[in-house]
Amino acid sequence: MDLVSSINSLVCLTSKTDGLVSILWNPATKHCVNIPTPNLKFLPNQDGSSIGFCFDSLRNDYKIVNVLWFHEDMEPRPRVELYSLSADCWREIEIEGVVPFEFLSSSGDTIVKGEQNWSAYFHGHPFVNVVWFDVGKEVFREGRPKRAQPGC
């Protein structure tokens, strides 16, 4: 199994050997939760996939983001499915418009304040940027949100 990431001492592990198998594990209590298989499956025209682990502090819920990439008309098109630990189910999230990026790794790179971050390649640009999953609004965003400076 591969380590996706860890939040609040809860570890997310996955294996893509036979579909996507995910486990949430608490090493302190030795408790494991087997996550149901996602509804989205690998297809012959699929170009890649990535998985992330998030904590939704508004809903006090751990979530897994499953992203499958396809190319249609020379543009990257992701299909995204979100697992909620509290609901114990997967549901597909609509991504509006053209997504001008693709993730560089099969799992997220780092967690910042409970939100998964990926390094991403932006089409038409010779650089790598950060894309993060806003778990509260269930959308992908480029870069990091601007924070107000003290005294401003």
Automatic annotation (TrEMBL):
* Superkingdom of origin: Eukaryota
InterPro entries for this protein: F-box-assoc_dom_typ1, F-box-assoc_interact_dom, SCF_F-box_component
Which species expresses this protein natively?
Rhododendron griersonianum
Listed name of the protein? F-box associated beta-propeller type 1 domain-containing protein
Query: What range(s) does the F-box associated beta-propeller type domain occupy?
Result: 10-141
